[in-house]
Amino acid sequence: MNRLADNAERVPVLIAGGSLVGLSASLFLGRLGIGHLLVEKHPRTSHHPRGRGNNIRTMELFRTAGVESAIREAASVLADNHGILQTPSLTGTEGNWLFREMDPGARPPGSALPDGACAARTTWSRCC
Ligand SMILES: Cc1cc2nc3c(=O)[nH]c(=O)nc-3n(C[C@H](O)[C@H](O)[C@H](O)COP(=O)(O)OP(=O)(O)OC[C@H]3O[C@@H](n4cnc5c(N)ncnc54)[C@H](O)[C@@H]3O)c2cc1C
Fold first, then answer.
1. What parts of the sequence cross the membrane (predicted)?
2. Which of 4, 34, 59, 81 lies at 20 to 30 Å from 100 by C-alpha?
């Protein structure tokens, strides 16, 4: 028989993993007032980057949750980080740079839109 320990905590939602999906779920559940517990097996953020940017729709959702400016501030340390290096090894210099010059997400919020661009109130953001 399954029996919870006397000091066990019951929560409506258990979120396993505190990365992009888990933290976003926690943020949006919290805004709805839904109690939850997030568990993450690592004590800190990953050493390996797993995101170069958040697209416009993602940033719109983060803006509604009030965290857009915090994300941009955290991402500002990567302002000079351009392009993707496609490489067979993390230790060498061999590889091909992709998108090194072209960076459509570099438009600062509030600046003029390029011709034909849709008028979203926010922009692509680098990941932090
Ligand atoms: C090189 C690279 C570049 C990318 N670039 C982009 C990009 O520019 N933009 C974009 O949107 N996406 C990008 N992605 C994809 C993006 O990183 C993933 O879609 C995203 O990380 C998935 O998030 P997730 O929370 O589902 O999973 P993960 O990020 O894999 O996180 C899972 C979390 O769960 C934790 N966990 C696992 N098992 C347990 C357990 N048993 N108990 C507790 N915690 C546990 C892990 O420690 C981890 O923190 C990129 C991915 C890679 C690899």
1. 12-34
2. 59
